[in-house]
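Troubleshooting entry. Yesterday's outputs looked truncated, so today I'm pasting the complete records for two proteins to confirm everything comes through intact. If either block looks cut off, that's the bug. Protein one:
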Amino acid sequence: MIENGLIPFGLYGKKRATVAAALINDALKRQDIQANVKEGREKAAKAAASALPPKPADPQDPSRT
C-alpha cells in the first residue's frame, strides 16, 4: 500500500519509513484517533500505578498515629 498507492496522493519519500511517519502523523490529527490515544494513556497510567509496590509507613508521619 505504501509503495504502490500513496505517491499519487502526495505521500511519498525516499524511504518507506518517511511515508509511514507521514501517515502516522496524519492519523494522529484525527479526533477519533486522539480519543484512542488518550484512553490508552489512561490505561497505561492505571496499570503502572497498580504495579508499584506500596509505600512503607513513615514513622514520623503524625497522621498514622
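Protein two, checking that the full record survives here as well:
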Amino acid sequence: MLENDYEDLVKLIQKWITEKNLTNRLSQSPYYNTKELGKKFVLIEPKILDCSSLQKLNLENPKIVRLIYQTYYKIYFNKKENMGKIGKNIKIDGVEETINITIDDCCLSKKEMKEKFGVTIANYLRHASNGCVRIADTNIHRFYHELQKAALETAEIKSKERVSRPKKNRVSRLLETSKAIERVIKPLNNAVNKKSEYSDEEIALIRVIKENLEKTRDLCKSFNDKLKK
C-alpha cells in the first residue's frame, strides 16, 4: 500500500465514521461516503470483494485490517459517551492501581490482553456482553459489512460498464460507417442524374456500385438497430 493511499483511506474512514451514530445500533450510513470509501478500498485491496468478514480479510491483508480497527477506535473512544474508557490512568473496578490503555492495546486479542493486563482488565475490555472494546468491535464489523457491500456494488457497476462499452463502440462504428457510405452514394446519385456526362456502360457500372453501397448501408443500419436493443 502506498503512503498516499494509506492517508486517503484513513481520511475516508474517518469521514464515514464521524457521520454515523456510533451507538450499538448504527444509523444508515451516508450513501455517497460509503460508495466513495468502497471504491477507494477496492483500488487499494481488491480482496475485499472475496472476504465477507474482517477475520477473512485479516488473513489476506492484516495491515489494512489493523488500519480499520485503529481508525475506528480513535474516533469511537473520543466520543463524549465513551471518553475515559481507555487512555491514561483508567480506573477499573477490582484493580487497585490505575491503568494505561492505548489504541494498540485495543487491537489485542483477549488472550493477549490477559497476558499483558490480567483477567480483570481483559474482561473489562473484551467481555462478551459489556466489554468496551467488544462493543466497539460490534460496530466495526457492521461498518465492514456496509463497506464490503459498497465495494461489491462498485465492482458490479464496473463489470456492467465493461460489458456495455464494447456494444456502445460497435453501435458508434456502424453509425459512422453508414453515414460514410451515404456520403459516397450522394455523388453517385448525381452521376446517374447527369447521364449526358457518362456513357451507357459507365452509368450501368455506377448503378451497380450504388446499389451495392446502398445494400451495405442498409445492413449497417439494421445491425445497428439490433445492437441498440
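Both blocks look complete. Sanity check on protein two: The radius of gyration is 33 Å.
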